[in-house]
Each structure stands twice: as structure tokens, then as C-alpha cells.
Amino acid sequence: MNFKNYLSKAKYLSLGLLLSGTALAGDKNPPAKFIKEGVWRGVFTVSESQVPFNFELKGKDAEHAVFTLLNGSRRDNFHVQLLGKDSVFIKMNTYDAALVAKINDDGTLSGEYRSLVPNFRGNALPFTAEHGKTYRFVEPGKDVAPTADLTGKWELKLYSKEAVPASIALLKQKGNKLTGVVMTVVGDSREIEGTIQGNEFALSGFTGPSPFIIKGKINDDGTLSGEEGFGIYKNLKFDATKNNDVELPDPYKLTFLKEGYKKLDFTFPDLNGKQVSLSDSKYKGKVVIVEIIGTWCPNCTDQTVFLSPWFNKNKKRGVEAIAIGFEQKDSLEYAKYTLGKLRDKYNIGYDILFGGLADKKLVAQKLPAINKFIAFPTTIIIDRKGDVREIYTGYTGTVTGKYFDDYEKKFNKVLDALIAEPAPESAANTQDAGNTVQGK
């Protein structure tokens, strides 16, 4: 498949019954409908529960429109495409998914959030949306006084047949309004917002990837019980206890090299099919940041938002970076499309390679020097000698406050120290030889 034409084909195929395909009686060319400007309230239907979200539309037509998802202080912008006379297609930027909706006669929207990954069927969430409703969970004037203040750090115990990572919720409450983030060793939920009503609470978030919701009740002893859901993926029950001293496992100690290994070795194709190896002369004597990502992974996107401008600012200091993308389809042609979108949107100036299918066991097989692979993203920092010096599991975004600040400080401290180390003489000779061959 030619993935340059993939999006235009996929969006029309994905409409299904959302497009009426009939003209109004007596009018062969009715005027095209468009989404009303202003703030909207949408509701996903997930199994038998509802997950609300908010968005804003600015612009009176598709050419000028900006669709913005609203989550607390976070804003994510998307383009809108008009399909036919009464339907819209909103691609979730670098995530291979879209909102596809019909504009009804009464101005409301009805449609689906759909995966666009080829041959990846069954992943769709129906939704409806109403214009002018700015609330998320509770209509204005219907609030019930909260029985507690949930502001603080909460230790979550999740219940599942499979092992699940430890979780911490950081919450802020002001009256009935509740905002926060859920952190695990593999990343964070991004900013979520919601409400507390009496002894019940609920928060949700939708930023482009599958929506997230966490809801429950406050028990008589001050603990919490509830359930968190990951849209089209899974739901887990939890108990939570306020604990301002709880911390997640050290992300610098979770992934490491097996005994006897000091270096990492790999060869993967870039987006043009050229084989690239960490042993290539381009990386000799350089500090190298290896980022293991996937375009389907929101924390990977957040890490890219951090790393891309950092690299563009520091690349002349003797540092290189490589992103290895593991995608939802084991196809270089498909990866060229998805990873190319990521590269273009975030102005990535470092090499992007395709590792294969997004599977943690596969990553561990293709990088046999590491003890195990736990999370997308994982950041591996290599010194000028080619030795692995740091491995950071997951990513904590800006919404985590102090945790992000600590990450940024240590990242810069480690990189500054490694960049300041002298390059080995053998690497300098290799680079000189390469320059001579190239006539530089």
C-alpha cells in the first residue's frame, strides 16, 4: 500500500454508516454543514459506562478550523477535514486514529473514535457531542458538597490477573473541581480533570490516544476504592491510600545491561530502508542518546517533545540521538508513514529507525544486552567510548511537576558530564579517516 495515499483512503473507508449518502429532497446541492464554534462536551460510550471529554472549535470552515482537546491546563490541537456535506474527519495527529462524526440536523455530533491501523479491526468507541456545554461530569448548579479534600499523593493498589505496575495519583482539589495525573513506572496518564461530589469522585482525560477515566468513592476510613479504564483496552479495580511519602521504583534501576555487557549493539533500517548501526562511524566518539519509542504511545510523544528541541540546541556539542520505533504493524512502509509524521510534526533532527512490531518481548530479543524491556519509551545514554552509562525507564511529563523537573535536571547533568569527557583517540582517528575519504 502507498501510505502517502493511505490517510485519504482510510478516512473514507472508516465512515461506514456515518455518512447518509442521500441528498435532500428537491435540493441536489445542499449547503455543507460544519461544527459550531465554541466549547463542546463529548461523551464516549465504553461498554456500559460513559467517559466525558471537552473540546473547543475555532474557525467557521474546515480550511481555518482548529479542534482543541481540553484537559485541565493542557491543550492539544488537531486539524479538521470536511467529508461530503455533513461529516468530519479529525486525525489524531501522529496517532493512527481519528474521530469520525456526522453533523446532525440539530447541530450535535455523533460518531466514533477509530483506530486507522490497517487490519486492526474492532477498536472503535462511539461518541456524541453537544455544543455549548462547558462542564465535564456535573451540570452547573447541581454540585454536591464534597465530604473530603483529596489533594495530595495517593498510593494505588491495582487488581489484575496479570502483573501491573505500581501507581501513584497526584491530585489537586478546589471546591468540587478535581485535577491530577496518575503515574506508573512506565509513564503517566497526562493531565486528567473531573469532580468530587459528596463521597464520589471521577476524572477523565482524552488527548488523542484512547481516553482514560478513573472513578470511585471515598470510604469511611478515608481510603479510596474505584476503577480506572483505558478506553478500548482494559479496566482495573483499585484501592488507594493517601501517602505523601510513597515513591515509585527508581526509573534508573529498572532496566540495565546483563552481566558481562558494557555496550549496546543493533542494526535497524531507517525510514529509507538504509541499515543503520550503532557501530557506524557517525556515532564514534560521540555521546549517543537511544530512544525506544512507538508513535502509538503518548508518553513517547511527550518524550519526543522534550528531546527534539534539546537535540537541535545541543547537537553541535558532540552528541547524537537515535529513535528506534516499534509500531502497530510490522511493515517498513507503514513505519515510514507513522514515524515520518512524528518526524515532521516535531522537527526531529536525529536518526529514526524502524525496530519492528510493538511488542516488549520482541524489543528484548532485538536488544539482547538489556535485562528486560519494561516500557515505551526507554532512554539509553551511551558515552563517547560506546559504553552504556544510564538507562531511564518510562517518562514523566510536565504535568508531574517536581518529577519532571528532577528528570530534566538529571538528564542535563548526565549529558553535560558525558559531553565534557574526551573522545577516545581511536574515535578521532576514525573520524579523520572518514573525512579524508569524503574529501573534507
Automatic annotation (TrEMBL):
<protein>
    <recommendedName>
        <fullName>Thioredoxin domain-containing protein</fullName>
    </recommendedName>
</protein>
<keyword id="KW-0732">Signal</keyword>
<feature type="domain" description="Thioredoxin">
    <location>
        <begin position="257"/>
        <end position="420"/>
    </location>
</feature>
<dbReference type="Pfam" id="PF00578">
    <property type="entry name" value="AhpC-TSA"/>
</dbReference>
<feature type="signal peptide">
    <location>
        <begin position="1"/>
        <end position="25"/>
    </location>
</feature>
<dbReference type="InterPro" id="IPR000866">
    <property type="entry name" value="AhpC/TSA"/>
</dbReference>
<dbReference type="InterPro" id="IPR013766">
    <property type="entry name" value="Thioredoxin_domain"/>
</dbReference>
<dbReference type="InterPro" id="IPR050553">
    <property type="entry name" value="Thioredoxin_ResA/DsbE_sf"/>
</dbReference>
<dbReference type="InterPro" id="IPR036249">
    <property type="entry name" value="Thioredoxin-like_sf"/>
</dbReference>
